Structures are given as C-alpha cells and as structure tokens.
C-alpha cells in the first residue's frame, strides 16, 4: 500500500503491475532525455550570440527532427501495446471471483463454490483498532490464493463503481447490467488495499477493498471453515 510522502508507485504485487512500473520508468527515461536535449538547445540559443547560416535552412536537420520523434514513439508504443494485450488476456483461471458494487459497499461471490458469498463493509472509525487502517480495512476480507490466476467478474447493482487495487494494476469499471472481466495473479502473501475509484455518490470514498493473499492450503482451510 502507499505510505507517507511516497512519490512513486506502490510496490507491485502482480507480474502485470511490475511490468507497468518498468514501462513507467522506461517512458520517464525517454522523457528525461528529450527534456535534457531541448533545455540544452534552448539555453545554447539564448546565450550564444553567433548565427550559423547553415542552420537557417537545412533539409537534413528538418528530416532528422521529423524522423526522430517517430522512432521515439515506436519505442514507447511497442511495450505499451504488449502490456495492453497482456492485461486483457485471461490465462486459464483456477477460480472466479465476482464483485458487485452497491451504494456504498461491495458484495463478493466465489462462483466455483456453493453458497460462498458475503458483503464487505468499511470498518467504522469508532471500531478501528491499532492494527487496522483508517478508511481502508473491511469487516470481511477477500481471501485469495497466491500464485494462482484469478478471473474477476465485476458488475454493479445501482450506479457506476470501479473495482481498483493499485498494487495489482487492476482497475475495472462496475456497470449496472453489464459484466466486465479481468484477471490477475498475486505473487506474494500479504494484505492489499484498494478503493472504488469512480465517483458513485456521497459515500464514494467509504467503500474500500481489502484482499488477503494466502497460501493454497490456507485458502482451502478457509473455504472449508465457511462451508461447515
């Protein structure tokens, strides 16, 4: 999760988010090189009082500054398109989770199990403990096995919502009457936090999402305990 004075992205908890962070740094380095070059040229023009008649009209330099941006855009577009296709791909999911947005809480259904569903509300501030995070912890956490491809199906019961976990690189709109799906894989155990990122009403900022990533054995024991 994000921390105080954090100026960078959250640590990636999935392969897709790690690739998004790499792409972000890759693009920033290209931007840094462009900004450095342009600032150098502007500074030189401001402080240099000499004029070169060969620079007043030159087809070579005009061709260069037309082709160079096109090449730079290719270096940005190729990894971007690769990531877009990877984010839309569903890789043989081991289980399916359905999230339904309400005003203002989330409902979850484990489609592969019988009658395994629950509502998830934010823990009120007066009930917060020392180990809980204000406005981020919920009374019922989503328990998911790590290192397992998860298919997420998202919809809404009333208005537009958006199911978002920044550290997983997942942001899927919840639209009434429509099913949107995405997939993710959590590559380490822990607790991941997110919130609805669509302005859905007065309590929009009070419908958090909490995922508890556990081992496969722990997940099986959790499912068994709920089925008893």
Helix segment tally:
4
The spatial strand order of the largest sheet comes to 3-2-1-5-8
Give the DSSP E fraction (strand runs of 2 or more residues).
25-35%
CATH topology of the largest domain: Immunoglobulin-like
**Global outline:** elongated
Largest sheet: 5 strands, mixed
**Spatial gap, N to C terminus:** 33 Å
CATH homologous group name of the largest domain: Cupredoxins -  blue copper proteins
Tell me the structural class.
alpha+beta
Quick check: average pLDDT? 89
* Overall CATH architecture of the largest domain: Sandwich
Number of strands: 10
Low-pLDDT residue intervals, each spanning 5 or more residues: none
Topology order in helix (H) and strand (E) letters: HHHEEEEEEEEEEH
Helix content: 25-40%
Count of domain modules: 2
C-alpha-based Rg, rounded = 24 Å
Membrane topology: Multi-pass membrane protein
Catalytic activity: 4 Fe(II)-[cytochrome c] + O2 + 8 H(+)(in) = 4 Fe(III)-[cytochrome c] + 2 H2O + 4 H(+)(out)
GO molecular function, one term: oxidoreductase activity
Keywords: Copper, Electron transport, Magnesium, Membrane, Metal-binding, Mitochondrion, Mitochondrion inner membrane, Respiratory chain, Translocase, Transmembrane, Transmembrane helix, Transport
């Amino acid at each position: 999760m994000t921390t105080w004075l954090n100026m960078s992205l959250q640590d990636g908890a999935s392969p897709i988010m790690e690739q998004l962070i790499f792409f972000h740094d890759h693009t920033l380095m290209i931007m840094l090189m462009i900004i450095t070059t342009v600032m150098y040229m502007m500074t030189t023009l401001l402080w240099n009082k000499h004029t070169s008649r060969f620079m007043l009209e030159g087809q070579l330099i005009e061709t260069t500054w037309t082709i160079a941006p096109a090449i730079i855009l290719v270096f940005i577009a190729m990894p971007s398109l690769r990531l877009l296709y990877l984010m839309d791909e569903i890789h043989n999911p081991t289980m399916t989770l359905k999230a339904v947005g309400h005003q203002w809480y989330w409902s979850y259904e484990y489609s592969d199990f019988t009658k395994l569903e629950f509502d998830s509300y934010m823990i009120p501030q007066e009930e917060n403990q020392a180990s809980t995070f204000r406005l981020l912890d919920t009374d019922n956490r989503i328990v998911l096995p790590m290192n397992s491809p998860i298919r997420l199906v998202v919809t809404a019961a009333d208005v537009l919502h958006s199911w978002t976990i920044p550290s997983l690189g997942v942001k899927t709109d919840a639209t009434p009457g429509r099913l949107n799906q995405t997939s993710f894989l959590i590559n380490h155990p822990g607790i991941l936090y997110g919130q609805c990122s669509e302005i859905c009403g007065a309590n929009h900022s009070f419908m958090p999402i909490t995922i508890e990533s556990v081992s496969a054995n722990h997940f099986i024991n959790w499912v068994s305990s709920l089925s008893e």
